[in-house]
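Listing 4. Sequential folding, example run.
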Amino acid sequence: MKKIKRNILLNPGPATTTDTVKYAQVVPDICPREKEFGDIVRELTRDLVKIVHGEDNYDCILFGGSGTSGVEAVISSVVPADKKILVVSNGAYGTRMAAIAASYGIGTINYRIPYGDYPDIAAVEELISQNRNSISHMGIVHHETTTGMLNPVEDFLALARRYGIELIVDTISSYAGIPIDLRINDYDYIVSTANKNIQGMAGVSFVICKNSLLNGRAPAGRSYYLNLYQQYAFLKNSGQMQFTPPVQVIYALYQAVKEYFLEGAENRFKRYRENWQILINGLLEMGFKLLLPLEHQSGLLTAILDPQDKNYHFNEMHDYLYHRGYTIYPGKGAKESTFRIANIGEIYSTDIKDFLNNLKSYLNQYDIRYF
């Protein structure tokens, strides 16, 4: 197998992948209606549920598309016409959930706070109390990659249960990177994608739902392609996706899941945490300041305040590092100006150490001091 040039992606996805995942896409052409491919899909969906320990009570529905397609499938399908969704928006992806709901004409209560502020459970409960008979669902992002914040989804689950509200959790950038156990925290719907911590390729999203919420429900029917109930019924009855799937991307995801189990959940989490700790220590030693306090951080992505130095320009720093094999990411509307570095994907502590050395070289070459 020919070795492929390796880039270190420190953006929050797509992530760096193994060559074996890349080469898993090189397979004989196959019609996705054949039993052989259907068997792959059935095994894959079972394993995606297994990763979050939902085997007994959950099913997995695949969609062709980015993670946003999965979020849209849930929101557009499950909120009744006469009800509303309450969305926690403390980052761009919470705001996106609210925008998706609004685009379908779904009544939306948007708890919006500055990107980087920690949610106030009491304030959200007050909104629920004011709209007690109209809210059927609540949406929140687990890991908000706008800032690297880990939102307190367990607290929101308890709040949802107290008021009889179903909870939709965007786990797009936390699934397979932060332990999620549906036996302990029985979220109603979680959404993720192939191209982040599971270390597959972009092009497949998936929704993991309580099967009790899928059987016997009357669909809202707002979307044709992203109808959660119809896709579920088709997958369950035939083992196939309703519409033409991204076949090669699914083979890559199938391989990535195998590699996840081979590494082991604890080892992957440990590797990501080690990457993050080395990154944090190195940044702080260089004088960088972080947007969030450490206790609110996910350990998967870090938002760093831009240096207040006339010689600093993000694009210049990005290009310097990019030409040396490292991709970093700009900020995204946080309450202070930032850039972002993720530590997910098929990368290791040596990669983070090499990156930090290159970052230090950039600062020295352009004579940049933090403050």
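-- end of first protein; second protein begins --
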Amino acid sequence: MSQSAPRADGRLPDQLRPVTFEAGIAPHATGSVLVSFGSTRVICAATIEPNVPAWMKQQRVPGGWLTAEYSLLPYSTHERKARDISRGKLDGRTVEIQRLIGRSIRAVIDLQKLGQNTLWLDCDVLQADGGTRTASITGAYLAARLAVQTLLDTGRIKENPLTDSVAAISVGLLKGRPLLDLPYAEDKDAEVDANIVMTGRGRFVEIQSSGEEATFTGDEFTQLLALAQKGIRELAAAQTAFLSRELLKLG
């Protein structure tokens, strides 16, 4: 198959799925966004709590804190996924993803400028079709930025603590072809998959990459990184356009 031949959904190998952002999806949150990467849809909500964790108080750590939670809603997958609370514990995948979301947003925030506040980021997957963690990170940044604007507008903080934007995308090798933004049908059969997190200025935050009973070369990895960089540049531009509209409404 030609490296440039269309994929099953008609996209080119280096093409993102349709990406959309909808603000205000959770009106009781300080900031919220419904993010869609193709058929993957995630509600990302940011809530400001005027307090910090006990360990920060005990250790007299200045500034605020940011933490994230992630969940696949029971009806988000083809077969019903039991809620973690019904099992009495979080599964390992959930813990891994919510830690990744928290690390990704903390990479672009000055917590001292957040003041004595905790920024909670809740990412709830409505529909899962591959790339739920990358969509969550991309949407969580937008929800955080909207929430921060509310803090600024109400005078609860004096400076914007966010130092850059952040977004994430998946890439992979399927039958030897490097592909951008894999839906589930491609992801489940990929020999190699990776999730790349980058800032709007093009700096890497995290790279997760593994072979699925396969290996990959340095050249193949370089191709995957180049694809991810292209995709994240496009996501960053979409984030900027979205915020330009939404922050104008808030103003």
